[in-house]
Amino acid sequence: MRKAVVLLSGGMDSATTAAIAKDEGYELYAISFDYGQRHARELESAKAAAASLGAAGHLIIAFDMRGIGGSALTDEIDVPLDRKTDEMAEGIPVTYVPARNTIFLSFALAYAETLGAFDIFIGVGQVDYSGYPDCRAEFIESFERTANLATKAGVEGKGKLRIHAPLVSLGKADTIRRGLELGVDYSLTWSCYVGSEKACGRCDSCRLRLAGFAAAGAVDPLEYA
Amino acid sequence: MRKAVVLLSGGMDSATTAAIAKDEGYELYAISFDYGQRHARELESAKAAAASLGAAGHLIIAFDMRGIGGSALTDEIDVPLDRKTDEMAEGIPVTYVPARNTIFLSFALAYAETLGAFDIFIGVGQVDYSGYPDCRAEFIESFERTANLATKAGVEGKGKLRIHAPLVSLGKADTIRRGLELGVDYSLTWSCYVGSEKACGRCDSCRLRLAGFAAAGAVDPLEYA
To answer: Is the pTM of this model over 0.80?
Structure first.
């Protein structure tokens, strides 16, 4: 069985991506990050999602991005609330975390290399998204090229490292439809940036999620404040 | 004054690279990594080198690569000793740490973005080296391209992120000569992989260092076991 490393944040996109990888026949090795995020409770969702998907391994890497800061998710900056989708489309918001997906993919690459895996799955999308540069296809393609130059696995030519981003061109509604087909339990996922007891329903991440469920004609099983 | 982020391992190459960046007029922000390496004592050398160079900041990021393993530097694998330079040139040795420079550069990228810096210096070289794929110019160039696609700093076009690798085409002897010209205090640096009280003189890293000092006609100020 081919192994794949799947970045699992605990959110709905990464859970859907993991279900797609499983459906494609991969044995799943999840990787998650405890990086000082405001909404560290997403890690509990990541663990639940990994278990629910029958992952063969789940590695949680801890480091502290609060020493770097520069983001509403890791620094003393307020998470913006109640923004409309067209506002989200204007520029890169303060919830952007500097170089986050580059860091996450780099660790996934190390994990893949040690496992002998050549496939890494990441749940980025550039349709209904928050304007983060590291969620775009051209970033993913460039990282894939770098990965093949960076590693023993890439250089020795036993296989080509591939970064799969199956949601990159899917809107949230299509992502949710695909996930529901595959039996993803969205009650186990967590999207809210604020990280309180219940999802806020007001941050960009909650709003994109709720709009996606509405457009898919489905009910979001999460409780909102 | 332009800011630069400099990867500072505590070794002689990164100390020389930092001195070059300083000589080019940058204000230095050092970054080092406590990643579960066998030779964590190199971090004391990194702190000493940062102080000696007058760095304006020094960030140490801690994470544990022992959960990933796959290297003699982070796993229960012996560090090879007494290898000749031509043996080192054959293949990628067990001291290779999966995706290490990709991870390190990703954190440096995050730090640079938060500081408003567009220049990152890394002391990789591909002349007298251990065959690590992530020390080669083509990897550095590809990472630079990825960095500009990954970040707000790169995408907003206020500047181009540059990864400087001033030693990439220099042999160890030339590196040492350049460092001595710039006043680098090599007694503050640490290269040995084994991480005992004194440098072993037998691992690849010690052997490359000693051969470099000999070829430069200089005396290595470190004590060897």
So the answer is: yes
